[in-house]
Design brief:
Blueprint (H helix, E strand, L loop, with lengths): L1 H6 L1 H9 L1 H21 L4 H29 L10 H13 L10 E7 L15 H11 L3 H9 L2 E8 L11 E2 L17 H19 L5 E7 L3 H13 L15 H17 L6 H8 L2 H15 L3 E4 L2 H13 L7 E3 L8 H8 L15 H19 L3 H4 L6
Parallel strand pairs: 1-2, 1-4, 2-3, 4-5, 5-6
Helix pairs in contact: 3-4, 4-5, 5-15, 7-15, 8-12, 9-10, 9-11, 9-13, 11-13, 12-13, 13-14
Length: 395
């Protein structure tokens, strides 16, 4: 009978309607702990830590209860806004408020070339990378269109394009080297190059944070980067490489088989790579490494992190392997048409907002999902409660 009561709507409603009672209990417990520490002469250092942790628990419990109460008592049936309610709750918890705001949204597109691209793993030649960077800077790419539409500031970063760009462009120069190395011959980056890439990515976000930005998305451009991402996914999750490979920029069957053969050889050449940083350094790309550093810095800045498609999800997976809490700030914007992306999302225990069969990259999924994220914030802040609107709630 007790188990049934716990699962009942009556119990849930009663709990939410007795928020003051819950807070009284928590504060009494806090008082008991304080008195116990004095009477039992506990170690002061231990006591301070215990009290601090308990205080954090009280604040978190108060926010959790109040936030869920606010969502549930809008003028709608419980759960009627579906996943949008989960999204609103997540944003509120990240910002630690029942009235979250999205400020100065930014999109950062990291661009770099890959040594492995010269082996035929892509349907496009390497020079497309720099040509697309020029297109970004000219405002003519899909990501430019969607960012303009939704009021998102865009930054284009040269993380390692195999090209000398002319001076005077609105391009963020964070080039570590011209292209990563060919993974078939040697690691994609040296340890020093990889560490520099992480720092360069982080510095981009640090500067953006100074504008007041609290939500940021990351895109990429780099011929061959789906191959690097497939290799990283395989090593990060100990999966057969063939299960992590897709058609990328649109390979035909013969080209896909060639890609499988090349990446299988690359995996075999570097068998003793284990840690996330070793994996990213050996198999990744300069734009992927900078994206990892940028994502880690965005988490340190407590920004909401919009995660794009397959390549961006591989980057966040590497960051997650180092610090699982980073997923608390992540919003996965879409599931791409790249073969392994859905599998990767499932491995991370995540659900994407959109499924539009995209496979473009650039951060386009983030820009398209942004209005939905804004809607989650808006309903939390602007939608009336039953009490405010004088609407009768369900008995």
């Amino acid at each position: 009978m007790y188990a049934i009561l716990l699962r009942s709507d009556f119990f849930v409603k009663s709990l939410r309607l007795n928020i003051p009672f819950i807070l009284i209990i928590l504060n009494l417990a806090f008082l008991v702990l304080t008195l116990a520490s004095q009477f039992l002469a506990l170690n002061p250092h231990f006591t301070n830590i215990a009290l601090s942790l308990f205080n954090i628990t009280i604040i978190t419990t108060m926010l959790t209860t109040e936030l869920q109460h606010t969502i549930d008592f809008k003028t709608k049936p419980l759960g009627a806004l579906g996943y949008l309610e989960h999204l609103a709750y997540k944003i509120g918890m990240v910002q630690k408020t029942i009235s979250p705001q999205l400020s100065q949204p930014h999109m950062v597109v990291f661009a770099a070339d890959h040594g492995i691209a010269t082996t035929g793993v892509s349907a496009y030649p390497q020079e497309v990378t720099y040509q697309m960077v020029m297109n970004f800077l000219g405002g003519g790419a899909a990501i430019n269109v969607f960012c303009r539409q939704n009021g998102i500031e865009i930054k284009i970063v040269d993380a390692g394009v195999n090209f000398d760009f002319p001076a005077g462009l609105d391009l963020v120069d964070q080039k570590v080297r011209k292209s990563s190395r060919n993974i078939l011959d040697e690691p994609a980056m040296t340890v020093d190059e990889y560490q520099k890439a992480l720092k360069n990515g982080a510095s981009v976000v640090t500067q953006i944070a100074e504008t007041g930005c609290n939500i940021i998305g990351f895109g990429e451009m780099g011929i061959g980067n789906t191959s690097a991402s497939s290799l990283m996914m395989s090593k990060l999750f100990n999966l057969p490489i063939v299960s992590c490979i897709g058609r990328g920029t649109g390979l035909n069957d013969d080209q896909l088989q060639n890609k499988i053969n090349i990446l299988s050889t690359a995996i075999e050449k570097h068998p003793n790579i284990i840690t996330p940083d070793e994996i990213a350094q050996t198999f990744g790309g300069l734009e992927i490494a900078q994206m990892i550093g940028a994502m880690e810095e965005a988490f340190r800045q407590n920004m909401l992190i919009m995660v794009d498609g397959f390549i961006a999800t591989v980057a966040i997976a590497a960051a997650w392997k180092k610090n699982p809490e980073i997923l608390n700030n992540c919003i996965f914007c879409h599931v791409s048409d790249e073969n392994a992306h859905l599998q990767l999302l499932e491995l991370l225990g995540q659900k994407a907002l959109l499924n539009l069969n995209l496979r473009l990259g650039e951060g386009t999924g983030c820009a398209l999902a942004y209005p939905i994220i804004q809607s989650a914030v808006n309903f939390l802040n602007e939608m009336s409660s039953f009490e405010d609107a004088h609407v009768s709630n369900k008995e």
